[in-house]
Write a structure and sequence with these properties.
Blueprint lengths: L10 E4 L1 H13 L3 E6 L6 E9 L4 H4 L2 E4 H4 L2 H4 L14 H23 L5 E6 L2 E9 L2
Parallel strand pairs: 1-3, 1-6
Antiparallel strand pairs: 2-3, 2-4, 5-6
């Protein structure tokens, strides 16, 4: 059935905030966040943020796109790492480090929302197909 065939997808619409939030979530938490496209499939599809611990795409027929694939590489490289060993400092210093990191991530998120790529490759039946990315908003 064509509605279940993701090869008909020509473009995906994404919220830049969803893409950025998914990337940050995956970097900072034990689960994974992706941009999920669910059947029935059409030429233009909306990808929404989806968080999981076990990938169920093979059961649901959904297509998952990594947030790292829709944000420009040079911006990904600028993602702020948590500075220092929190265990080696007192509570007050650890709190200062966490606050600086949160502020740096927030600034990065603003830049990243403006750095959405024009196209992305989707994995369809073991093959990668390029589709357009249309930022919302």
């Amino acid at each position: 059935m064509a509605d279940d065939d993701p090869s008909v997808i020509q473009s995906i619409a994404i919220s830049p905030d969803d893409a950025v939030d998914a990337y940050v979530y995956t970097r900072e938490n034990p689960g994974e966040a992706v941009l999920r496209i669910t059947p029935p499939f059409h030429g233009r599809m909306r990808a929404r943020i989806h968080v999981y611990r076990v990938d169920d795409a093979h059961v649901t027929g959904a297509v998952h796109v990594s947030a790292a694939e829709v944000i420009e590489d040079d911006v990904l490289e600028e993602y702020p790492e948590l500075e220092g060993e929190l265990e080696a400092v007192d509570d007050a210093e650890a709190e200062r480090i966490r606050k600086r990191h949160a502020e740096a991530v927030e600034e990065w998120q603003e830049r990243a929302a403006d750095a959405i790529v024009d196209a992305v490759a989707l994995e369809v039946d073991g093959e990668r197909r390029e589709v357009e990315v249309k930022p919302l908003g």
